[in-house]
Design a protein that fits this description.
With 270 residues, this protein is an all-alpha fold. It has a domain of 170 residues: Transmembrane di-heme cytochromes, Chain C (Fumarate Reductase Cytochrome B subunit), CATH 1.20.950.20. Helix content is 61%, strand content 1%. It is built from 11 helices and 2 strands; from the N terminus they run αβααααααααβαα. Strands 1-2 form a two-stranded antiparallel ribbon. Helix 2 packs antiparallel against helix 3, helix 4 crosses helix 5 and helix 5 runs antiparallel to helix 8. The relative contact order is 0.15.
Length: 270
């Protein structure tokens, strides 16, 4: 049995006319109509994007654990140099996160189509409606997942919220660190402490942390779910950079197209 045996054709129905995408693909020498279910490796995530993804994840875990201990020492008594060491780890993780964030920001401007800001902010109606169609899938209202190679629009919206929360976490963190006389928090963020007060900054800092962890948890859940349903390598792509959709899926995806398929086939042929 071939992959095309799975396609059901109603005898009485006339064959559907080829779409513009499949006609264009066939004209370019890629027989999508004849071999629509052949899988092809599409390079999605560039190396710096993958590295910053995992560095940021590691920093979030480290900052959450050390931040929780700084706020309320647990398990290990805060005597001796324990608190000093924990604070040092917290600051190093925060600075590492800033460097990682700066690199990722560069790729928001100059990365490939899957990394640029246009992959996160809806720039057309199709992207905007995809937000609700993806939400409908997670809410068990719709049975189909919108065809996307990179970030679906709901995930992109969650990442925008995550970026905003990480920015709030960074600013309030430096402002709180300034209470200990450390720079740049002591001088550069003194206005923030005067405006809101230390207690309000602590509250915002901790609430932001819990919201970040909630988004991270949803991110892991959605990645595993979509990886299981689509079977294109969603999870492994953050290690290898490649997803393996069918030729048909590449052409029909919102962020795909004939040129993406051509690049993938050319790369596979060496």
């Amino acid at each position: 049995m071939t992959a095309l045996d799975d396609v059901r054709i109603t005898p009485a129905a006339a064959p559907a006319p080829p779409t513009a995408s499949t006609e264009a693909t066939a004209a370019h020498g890629h027989p999508v109509i004849d071999r629509p279910h052949d899988r092809v490796g599409v390079y999605i995530w560039q190396v710096p994007v993958r590295i910053t993804h995992w560095v940021t994840a590691f920093c979030i875990v480290t900052l959450s654990l050390t931040g929780g201990y700084i706020a309320d020492p647990f398990l290990i008594p805060p005597g001796g140099h324990v608190m000093t060491t924990i604070r040092m780890i917290h600051i190093i993780a925060a600075l590492t996160f800033l460097v990682s964030g700066a690199i990722r920001t560069v790729y928001l401007l100059f990365g490939n189509r899957f990394a640029r800001w246009t992959a996160f902010i809806p720039t057309n109606r199709k992207q905007f409606t995809e937000l609700f169609r993806q939400a409908g899938f997670y809410g068990f209202v719709k049975s189909e997942i919108p065809k996307v190679l990179g970030h679906n629009q709901l995930a992109a919206a969650a990442y925008l919220a995550l970026f905003a929360l990480l920015l709030v976490e960074t600013v309030t963190g430096f402002a709180l660190d300034g209470l200990m006389g450390a720079e740049p928090g002591a001088t550069g963020f003194a206005w923030l402490r005067e405006l809101f007060g230390p207690q309000m900054l602590r509250l915002v800092h901790h609430l932001s942390m819990w919201l970040i962890l909630a988004i991270a948890l949803f991110h892991v859940y959605s990645c595993v779910l979509v990886d299981h349903i689509e079977n294109v390598g969603v999870v492994t792509s953050m290690f290898t950079g490649f997803k393996f959709p069918t030729r048909e899926e590449v052409v029909e995806s919102r962020d795909g197209g004939v040129e993406v398929l051509e690049q993938a086939v050319k790369r596979a042929e060496g």
